[in-house]
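Morning run. Coffee first, then this:
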Amino acid sequence: MAYPMQLGFQDATSPIMEELLHFHDHTLMIVFLISSLVLYIISLMLTTKLTHTSTMNAQEVETVWTILPAIILILIALPSLRILYMMDEINNPSLTVKTMGHQWYWSYEYTDYEDLSFDSYMIPTSELKPGELRLLEVDNRVVLPMEMTIRMLISSEDVLHSWAVPSLGLKTDAIPGRLNQTTLMSTRPGLYYG
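And here it is:
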């Protein structure tokens, strides 16, 4: 759960979210180094006199500023592709949950069990108890085991929806007529909002 005035991400609860946080830090460091270098060069250009006009004809400089961005893009793209493939793979799920988005509620069905399905409605603001969170509390929560691979099948009955749990690193669109799937695995017990 995010806290008021929180600047960073929520605590990671799944291996995928941990990888996403590492990738974010990796990319942010590259962006920070590039921004610092550009700021340094701009400050040099503004404070020094341009006396070295012979450097304008240097082939080496042009080669460096062509190859260096390509190397930087590769340093960003390879970890990104690895995480994308990790997020897409499904390794023999222990449980499958079918999620259907409706106009104002979600329907859940545990497909591995015969008649286990329920609807989850958001609790109106007037009915909230002290300590409950507005627009996040529901009457029936989804209960899932931890440290097990779970497949979520996500679709919609009427309009586009988004099924997301930020601390698990999940966000999948529920589209009418299309069945999307994602996997999740929680590494610790808890109550996760999305």
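The longest strand covers residues 95-101. Good start to the day.
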